[in-house]
């Protein structure tokens, strides 16, 4: 596993909390819903390990539910503790977003607009306004 894969995997916990805050779900369904976040082929074993750990920490709870087709499934839902954790993730990821956005914008400025596949009159990279930077700052 590459460093990039490891870093992305670390983000799976807040994404699962977000998905469960939208609606409860069972493990296989959650694995499928992770596709919208770039994990088209998320390892189900890893997702289930995360779910068990999150349940032990009190972030989520689960119960068996009868299924219209097939066997009963363990359905997961977010708890109040999980909602607080999700809110903390929102703050931390927002701070990280600001740092990453500034880095990417400055990298494009350093290497030219063609790097982003746009011309000078196009929207800024990632659809955000350009970061206000002091060109003389280090």
What does this structure look like?
By secondary structure, the protein is mainly alpha-helical. Helices cover 51% and strands 10% of the residues. The chain is built from five helices and three strands; from the N terminus they run H-H-E-H-H-E-E-H. It has helices spanning 3-10, 12-22, 27-33, 44-56, 80-111, and strands at 25-26, 60-65, 73-78. It has a three-stranded antiparallel beta sheet with strand order 1-3-2. Helix 2 packs across helix 5 and helix 3 packs across helix 4 (44-56). The two termini are 35 Å apart.
> Strand fraction band?
5-15%
Give the SSE string: HHEHHEEH
Approximate helicity band? 40-55%
> Strand arrangement, largest sheet?
1-3-2
Rounded mean pLDDT is 85
Architecture blueprint of SSEs:
Layout: H1 3-10, H2 12-22, E1 25-26, H3 27-33, H4 44-56, E2 60-65, E3 73-78, H5 80-111
Antiparallel strand pairs: 1-3, 2-3
Helix pairs in contact: 2-5, 3-4
